[in-house]
Amino acid sequence: MKIIKHNKRYPSLSSKGFSLIELIVMIAILGLLAAVASTRAKDISTNVRISSAINQIISDIELSKELALAGSANVSLTYDINLDQYEIRKNGALILDYPGSNNGTVSISNGIFSSVDLTQVNLNGSNIINIDKWGNVLNNGIITINDNNTITISKLSGSTQISQP
Prior knowledge:
Elements: H1 20-71, E1 75-80, E2 85-90, E3 93-94, E4 105-107, E5 118-122, E6 128-131, E7 141-145, E8 149-153, E9 160-163
């Protein structure tokens, strides 16, 4: 039997590969792409937070209508644009166990809603949505979030319309 020996040749330093300049150019391009992607991600996350806040406000109006009808009681939502929050009351008393609230107060400026600002509330010259014991919304108006996202609320039905840029 004949034994064949193989000599492995190691490639020389001048063989195929990337030069230092090519690596630096690639790192610079990747850094530029990462910077562009991060600014776009920040814009997208702000829009998601605004949409979430709008959905929270609308669902709280709908739930308050159902609570008024089910409990045969007057329910109100009082908005405070300085603190970016609103309170839910039943017959004048805070609903301490209201879902998603902190003792009856829902804040839209912290947590998942950070960078969301309650800009304007005009509900027939007031900052309160009143709902009678039949579930009818007694006043109409608008709620503005971050200056250009508007929720329009209709009287009686309480139906909402969203206007976003």
